[in-house]
Amino acid sequence: MSLIIDQVVSKQIWNGKLPIQISLDPTESRTFTEPIFTEAARCSYLPLITEQLAPIYSGLDIDLTHTDVWYDYQGEPLKWHYPIGLLYDMSGSKDRPWHITVHFQNFPTDKLLMTPSVEATQNMFMSMVKQADFIRHGSTKRVMNLSKNDQSQLWQALSLDRYDDYWNVNMHLLADSEGLRYVPLRIYLPDQCPVIQENVSFTDEGNPKMLGDVLGAILPDLFPSSLAIPMTHGIQLPLDTPIGWASQNLSFADNFLHVVICKCS
Known about the structure:
Ubiquitin-like (UB roll), alpha+beta, 3 domains
């Protein structure tokens, strides 16, 4: 299977932004504060937003740099190590801006991983990049062969929103399209169901495998039917989308194709 990166699609995915309204939990501060409005890249992460909020809240004597800051949507804690766009799609929200709440007390250790720092997020991100490399090629040598500067550049390019810098490095991880094993794919169902991650080949007897074939094999009760629709980056995916093309062009910055299954309303 040849490597086909559609630069137009890839850049639109990278440039996808989400307007967000962030409110401070009123029970955690005696000072009334208006909501803060920001715009975040869909491929970014909540701890990077925390870094932006820290100097704003410092004026209220709230130190976000030394606390386990966390966020929720309608009472449900948001996983800080998931991309923001994925969290929004999983929430089922149609709000623009997306209304979320920031907390600096009572960290929900039963629902979220501890230590939601930027450094921890970078480590989690690189762990996912390595996992995607292993699933795709059967080893992590492409990531491990990157210099320390190149590995750091992947994260820095994401955190600073530098598309060209990111792809200058990431292309080395995807360039060898021979002997591909499996698609780095994660499927998210509604109602807090466990994440599905199964081995999915790029082709079927030499022919491109379609998204509908993959979902029909993994979720036969839902596909094909009118009960659910697959989405990524806020986009409904046609079932006749080649899974290889989707993996190469619609994956998040961690090189995983994150597909959210939404209920039809």
